[in-house]
Write a structure and sequence with these properties.
globular, seven-stranded mixed sheet, 2 domains, about 15% strand, Aspartate Aminotransferase, domain 2, Aspartate Aminotransferase, domain 1, alpha/beta, single chain, about 350 residues
Length: about 350
């Protein structure tokens, strides 16, 4: 399965040092983790097993989210949580609906459990906007046991108002709506609490992205006690290592760093998109710091930029071979990509 980030074997073939690659293919906070995180991980005892229940981290999250700690489960990134959902809720007799084009791990996890996959797909003609009325009609048609909706969506950056998802979930109480909110923090002024109050909605959050902890893998699920218990029952022990737990706690305590860097990122995105459009690229609207760009041949465009030591995300694996996904980085790095595009990759 193809994902963003570096393929080290590919870089070796191209003679590129991973440390020198400017990577626009990942959607994480480019300003890096809080200094408090760096300090915290230095003091982790590596000779001890981690807390298998992640109690301290879950209690800290419960204060932030104003939900019971037992409604939260920490995981080795949201990717692990997606697989645990499939393990707990899907089998060859059950159906799942995926709102696409989107992250490929939903389909992989469903297929592993033998579940039947149905899709509702947004289209380029409508700028990949996700119509909640049409999605609800798809739920009614297919009667899925689980619905996977990434919000804001990867790779399109499109956002569904949370109250729209909650209204749909209220109409189909026997369906579990998995709302992957890995990129929620990158969208200003979103209500983090609406989807947390519905018994058949499970929210997935990723500390990998907003807190810049990609090397540690850390995410969490928030839902009803019943749903979280089901996930805990199929989770392997010590899923979240001690370093990740310590980093997560330290990151939560430095909210100022998060706010400062995300504000800077939102400002950088506006200038970045304007520069790319001025350079002649067809940039699609997005609520987040990443966005789709129609380039005709995504694979060729990516290969050409790799010759400049720059990587973007070829979107063929999303079913969008004419597109690449580009994530905003620091202003000086964004300018380097704009300059490379001007030489017509």
């Amino acid at each position: 399965m193809h994902h963003g980030a570096s393929d080290y074997a590919e870089l070796e073939r191209l003679g590129l040092d991973p440390n020198d690659l400017l990577d626009f293919s990942v959607n994480s906070n480019p300003f890096g983790p809080s200094p408090a995180v760096i300090e915290a991980v230095r003091h982790v005892r590596l000779d001890r097993y981690p807390d298998r229940a992640c109690l301290a981290l879950r209690r800290a999250l419960s204060k932030c989210l104003q939900v019971d700690a037992d409604q939260i489960m920490a995981g080795n990134g949201t990717a692990e949580l997606i697989w645990l959902i499939a393990l707990a809720y899907l089998n060859p007799t059950r159906r799942a609906l995926i709102i696409g084009p989107t992250f490929g791990e939903y389909a992989r996890a469903i297929a592993l459990m033998g579940g039947h996959i149905h899709y509702w797909n947004a289209t380029a003609e409508r700028c990949f906007s996700m119509d909640m009325g049409e999605i609800c009609r798809a739920v009614e048609l297919h009667q899925p046991h689980v619905v996977f909706v990434c919000n804001p969506n990867n790779p399109t950056g499109q956002l569904i108002p949370a109250d729209g998802i909650a209204a749909c979930a209220a109409c189909f109480k026997s369906t579990l709506f998995v709302v992957d909110e890995a990129y929620r923090a990158f969208v200003p002024a979103t209500d983090p609490g609406v989807v947390l109050r519905a018994p058949n909605i499970l929210s997935l959050r990723s500390m990998t992205k907003d807190y810049a902890l990609a090397g540690l893998r850390l995410g969490y699920a928030v839902g009803s006690h019943e749903v979280v218990r089901a996930l805990v029952s199929v989770c392997p022990p010590w899923s979240v290592n001690a370093v990740a737990q310590a980093a997560g706690l330290a990151a939560l305590e430095d909210d100022a760093h998060l706010r400062r860097t995300l504000n800077a990122l939102n400002q950088a995105k506006e200038l970045f998109v304007a520069g790319l459009v001025h350079a002649g690229l067809d940039v699609f609207p997005s609520a987040t710091h990443f966005f789709l760009v129609r380039v005709g041949d995504g694979a060729r465009f990516r290969r050409a930029l790799m010759q400049h030591g720059i990587q973007v995300r070829d979107c063929a694996s999303f079913g969008l071979p004419a597109f690449v996904r580009i994530a905003t980085r620091r202003p000086e790095e964004n300018e380097r990509l704009i300059n490379a595009v001007r030489v017509k990759p």
